[in-house]
Amino acid sequence: MANYENYMPYSTGLDTTEAINAIFRKVYQYMAFGLIITALAAYFSASSKAMLTFLFSSRAPMIILCVAEIGLVIGIGAGINKISASTARALFFIYSLINGLTCSVILLVYTNESVYKAFLSTACMFGAMSIYGLYTKRDITTWRSFLIMGLWGLIIASVINIFIGSSTTELVISILGIIIFMGLTAYDTAKIKMMAASYDSRDEEMTGKIAVIGALELYLDFINIFPVSVTLIRKQKRLIHFFIHYPCC
User: Model confidence over 39-54: pLDDT tens digits?
Assistant: First the structure.
């Protein structure tokens, strides 16, 4: 998650709603464009024998791409004050492209029907929580500590389950993952809203940087919800069985 604390907000006296709308238009535009790049890159990679050979003939290409992804996310977040808005935007789109290459494996493992259903369900869940984060009057920025603890718990449980191999535990982890990343979507949206209300919308350079960081945050939320949605759709029958037998969960 990017660090917003490096910014020093100032009061402008401008219409707050206007400032928020101006930045969120850019945020959603950049995010949508990033998702389109990712989808096209994943489809092209999964459809090209040459790309599949390059990506999966050995472990090295995927390892390099994953390291590049992590480096770009950290680089954009940590260096946002030192680079221009246009550079940050370009890096975000490069990250979206690389992520599409690594996500191509989803198209190889799952059926098109599962992927389409997962994308639709992800879009609905993401949209609902982002709208909630944008328009709620509650201060949901206080959710941060609980969401971070939940995220770390999820990572630890996932690592442990690699050795245990419990299908029930995997299902529970997937359900909790959906809940946590839906919460992060609302939280990140509210955080971007707070930032947008603190800056002069006439400062195109600063608002551009906030829009890129915001797009990256929400893009990551969407991307993290998507594969879990695919997994749950493939396990619909077990999911229904789980809730019938464990209604308190």
Answer: 999 999 999 889 988 8
**How would DSSP label each residue in 59-109?**
SHHHHHHHHHHHHHHHHHHHHTTTS-HHHHHHHHHHHHHHHHHHHHHHHHH
E strand or H helix at 168: helix 167-196
d(CA 115, CA 117): 6
Please tell me the distance from the alpha carbon of residue 107 to that of residue 179, in angstroms, as a whole number.
Answer: 24
Residue 27 CB: number of other CB atoms within 10 A?
27
- The per-residue pLDDT for range 49-72, each reduced to its tens digit, is 899 888 888 889 889 999 999 999
Among 68, 76, 57, residue whose Cα is nearest residue 97: 68
| Residues sharing a CB contact under 8 Å with residue 135, sequence separation 6 or more, in sequence order | none
Max CA separation in the chain (angstroms): 58
DSSP code of 201?
A: T
Query: Model's pTM, two decimal places?
Result: 0.83
Taking the C-alpha atoms of residue 242 and residue 249, their distance in angstroms, rounded to an integer, is 9
Inter-CA distances, 228 with 8, 121, 224, Å? 36, 11, 7
